[in-house]
Amino acid sequence: MEQTNILVVDDELNVRQLLSKVLSKEGYKVYTACDGLEGLELLQTISIDIIISDIKMPRMTGLEFLHKVKELEPDIGFILITAFATAETAIEAIKSGAQDYVTKPFDFTEILTAVKKLTMTKQHTYKLGSNTNMDRTDLKVKSKSPKMQQVLQLAKQVAAADSTVLLTGETGTGKEVICSAIHRWSHRNDKPLIKVNCGAIPDNLLESELFGYEKGAFTGAVSSKPGRFEVADGGTIFLDEIGDISPSLQVKLLRVLQEKTFERLGGVKSIHVDVRVIAATNKNLKEEVQKGSFRDDLYYRLNVVPIHLPPLRERPEDIEDLIKYFLESSAKISGITNPKVVSSETLECLKGYSWPGNIRELENIIERCVVISSGSMIDINCLPVEIREASQTYIVGSTEQEPLLNAAIDNIEKEVIKKALSESNGNKTKAALALGISRRSLHRKLQKYGMID
After folding, report:
1. Domains and CATH numbers, the chain
2. Model's pTM, two decimal places?
């Protein structure tokens, strides 16, 4: 597994040194910067996975630094260090794009837990090759598919109420997009939308993530911290992969849905919240209930308004518009006026493919095509052989030529990357923008072709 690169940004030298020492012992590659401006300079030359930054710093605050980072590298994980752990501080940090926050004074165990949790979440997010550089809430939730039009109509109707919603469907079908749309269409749209991937966080960490904890609740809990339900008060909480939570946590979640109250881990005071719950799963929860792995009472509490998202293979009418959207997004990121286009042959091939990874897989393929196509037109040879073979509308003429074709495509991609790096004077961030891909994707391709010093 690729080593995780962490950037620690703090104006206190002893904090930088201690964090660097602790994180290095855990196997992370650590870089440090004294403030946000120096951190931004480092990002021009180093591929960073996670940033840990103080909020109060000279020249540039941690929140200002966070905004700049999210503009340049939206898929970098970000942990803010704050001296005050209030729900308001948490809301500001999360709405600004931070994935987590740690309060001062902190125990190093708390820092390591936050990093571990974020690392696992990021690995889970990338397992299907999804590109978080494109904001999925910008997909405008439009569709030509009758099935999806029914989904959108129901989503708009339920948005006006506060009913709990259960989104079901295969991975990559756009459940998070529909959740964002429901929140945006609701009367809660001026309040936080807090997203939690229950399947990416170990159960022992998920409880404290959802409900918070009190000082001394466990080793490393040197101060109290509100959970995601508190942060979402007045707004919406999205519980993705709800089918993966343990039986013990199912009991606690059931109480929150029934009574709108809970206690922090290690606490005795009941906390009341006004939160709209939207859950999602790619599992058949009815079958999980029958098997005894999911509580039936919790299922009925979640399944107040069920919305099923059809897979992409059942909505081929949307493929062309999705391709156009991804191409336009790529051009926008690269600062290009005229987006690339796909040939009619390529389009037919893409329409004939079954898309087991759904919209995420399509997005990833379009990113690849943008990189390796040398001109403004994306032709059939830019597509992976497995897609051309599996498509119902296109058959590869001779499998004997496949190795040669793959090698040719790799050579083209390598030359395009070399040219982009040369024109940007070696600046990887600028090169990635010119190629229409994220800096992380560029880093992976440089590794693939042995182009990293």
Report:
1. 5-128 (3.40.50.2300), 136-310 (3.40.50.300), 314-448 (1.10.8.60)
2. 0.72
